[in-house]
């Protein structure tokens, strides 16, 4: 609105006010003997006038003005039609700094950021929705990645990532670097292409193995809604990156942020759930105190996804009702969980360092179930995963007495031959006899929780950090190059690093020289024990490599190469992901 119109409105308003307050003016003494008229003016009356002017302008322009009308209190709304999607993501909760400010206070977080950026950076960095860009990160140029629309099926839009020709060349170099068993080659790729997705994921795992979690998280954070087909190679990097990112964020106690990323990740493929995020989403909901959300989520999804057949949801839902104050419902759910999954109790109490009651410790119902040989292997893995991830929840002083009370009630029902006990035992044996689903095995590998490993024939083959356990019906754009047969010995720890991520790796079992033409079976994990010399040498070598890499990443200021196709015109820049 022009200043002329505002002056006109103000002048007219002043004239009206003078007429209206002629009877209410008062004399007030001022310095110098002068007397001033004081008017009872409502300064907000001008805003009513402004709305009138806006309506007039809209009328002249042919636009409709919809005034704000208060909703009558007697009008009832259809709650179903206005209910938000249970997986809707709140963008403000995707930023872990917002949650850290709520925990520690905004002044502490801001001062910490100023301290870290004291060395100077490259000026203002554009923030993103899912990651906080650091001042020392290289500038982001054309990445060669773009997202294209595929189809609309039953009202759901499907998209896919596309790799440009130059990005494909870099990806092929990366695959060759992985097969070369030389981590320096991967560092060289990141030096030339600081935002290459798979290289950042692979190097992040290297930092994690050397216990440099801060650098590992930063590398993942560099790579940050619709449906994406996990079968396509180009799409899988986003799933892997989001999963690793939410794990690192959860490690900072930003549980609400991790919950939002779980919802985002699940919304990409709610039917397939290729990284089995449903095995972790309940944990973050409980830790974030989003109890009602968890109840609503299970209520909406259990009928189609059978969530309560998973140990984590059976116990977490009971805890959510308990924290919500519905003790009667919580008791029933907890007893059902204990009857369906009795193998959880003793291991959970032991993990929580709780002294077990004699009646509970020696009762065959729980002691036999605790014997892993008497339960299906797939169920054992689900139970171990839940216990090792969520045992901190059960250390709550409010939960333990409630758990103890319901455990004894379950034993009373068992001793009275409640028919539910036999029924649940039959279901438990039949439902979990099959092999561990590939998505769950992939979830266990990505979670990297101590004491849990996937039991699947596929996991004994090549396992790569940037693409663990590709689906059997994978739609491949790239093929793994044939690894050359090179002599490998225990005296070269860096040479054997990329052979492994699985926990059963043993450097003493490596043959000194490979037979000609024999392919290595991929990468397995570092040895957990530090007693042998080879394991110690390996850890020291990895640590020195990470130190060198950290210096490299903190100090490089490269001219950003244009990784997009030379033939791409400027119109395609809007589709590129930065």
From TrEMBL:
Top-level taxon in the UniProt lineage: Eukaryota
A cellular-component GO term for this protein: RQC complex
Bias (Basic and acidic residues) ranges: 9-18
Acidic residues: bias regions: 562-578
A matching Pfam family: Tcf25
Matches recorded under InterPro entries: TCF25/Rqc1 (IPR006994)
Chain residue ranges for the region called Disordered: 1-33, 512-540, 554-578
Name under which the protein is recorded: Transcription factor 25
Source organism (scientific name): Rhamnusium bicolor
Lineage of origin: Eukaryota, Metazoa, Ecdysozoa, Arthropoda, Hexapoda
């Amino acid at each position: 609105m022009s200043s002329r119109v505002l002056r006109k409105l103000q002048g007219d308003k002043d004239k009206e006010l003078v007429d209206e307050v002629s009877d209410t003016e008062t004399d007030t003494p001022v310095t110098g003997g002068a007397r001033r008229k004081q008017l009872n003016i409502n300064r907000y009356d001008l805003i009513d006038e402004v709305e009138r002017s806006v309506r007039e302008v809209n009328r002249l322009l042919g636009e409709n003005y919809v005034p704000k009308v208060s909703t009558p209190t007697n009008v009832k709304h259809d709650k179903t039609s206005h209910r938000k999607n249970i997986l809707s993501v709140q963008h403000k909760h995707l930023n872990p700094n917002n949650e850290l400010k709520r925990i520690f206070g905004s002044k502490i977080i801001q001062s910490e950021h100023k301290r870290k950026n004291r060395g100077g950076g490259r000026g203002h960095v554009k923030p993103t929705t899912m990651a906080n860009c650091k001042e020392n990160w290289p500038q982001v140029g054309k990445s060669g990645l773009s997202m294209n629309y595929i189809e609309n099926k039953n009202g759901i839009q499907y998209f896919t990532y596309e790799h440009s020709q130059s990005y494909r060349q870099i990806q092929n170099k990366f695959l060759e670097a992985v097969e070369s068993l030389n981590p320096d080659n991967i560092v060289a790729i990141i030096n030339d292409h600081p935002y290459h997705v798979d290289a950042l994921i692979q190097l992040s795992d290297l930092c994690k193995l050397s216990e440099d979690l801060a650098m590992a998280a930063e590398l993942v954070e560099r790579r940050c809604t619709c449906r994406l087909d996990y079968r396509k190679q180009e799409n899988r990097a986003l799933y892997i990156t989001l999963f690793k990112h939410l794990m690192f964020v959860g490690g900072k106690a930003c549980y609400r942020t991790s919950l939002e990323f779980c919802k985002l990740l699940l919304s990409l493929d709610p039917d397939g759930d290729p990284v089995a995020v449903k095995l972790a989403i309940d944990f973050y909901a409980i830790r974030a105190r989003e109890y009602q959300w968890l109840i609503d989520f299970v209520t909406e999804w259990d009928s189609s996804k059978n969530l309560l057949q998973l140990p984590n949801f059976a116990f977490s839902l009971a805890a959510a009702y308990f924290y919500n104050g519905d003790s009667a419902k919580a008791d029933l759910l907890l007893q059902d969980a204990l009857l369906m999954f009795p193998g959880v109790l003793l291991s959970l109490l032991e993990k929580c360092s709780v002294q077990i009651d004699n009646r509970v410790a020696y009762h065959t119902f729980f002691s036999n179930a605790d014997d892993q040989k008497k339960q299906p292997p797939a169920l054992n893995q689900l139970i171990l995963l839940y216990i090792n991830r969520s045992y901190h929840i059960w250390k709550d002083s409010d939960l333990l007495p409630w758990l103890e009370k319901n455990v004894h009630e379950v034993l009373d029902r068992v001793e009275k031959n409640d028919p539910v006990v036999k029924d649940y035992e039959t279901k438990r044996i039949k439902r979990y006899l099959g092999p561990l689903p590939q998505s769950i095995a992939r979830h266990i590998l990505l979670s990297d929780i101590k004491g849990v490993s996937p039991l699947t024939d596929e996991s004994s083959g090549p396992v790569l950090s940037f693409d663990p356990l590709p689906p059997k019906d994978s739609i491949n754009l790239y093929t793994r190059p044939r690894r050359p047969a090179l002599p490998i010995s225990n005296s070269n720890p860096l040479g054997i690093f990329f052979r492994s991520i699985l926990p059963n790796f043993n450097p003493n079992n490596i043959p000194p020289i490979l037979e000609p033409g024999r392919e290595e079976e991929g990468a397995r994990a570092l040895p957990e024990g530090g007693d042998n010399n080879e394991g110690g040498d390996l850890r020291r070598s990895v640590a020195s490599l990470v130190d060198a890499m950290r210096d490299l990443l903190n100090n490089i200021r490269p001219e950003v190469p244009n990784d997009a196709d030379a033939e791409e015109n400027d119109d395609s820049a809007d589709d590129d992901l930065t």
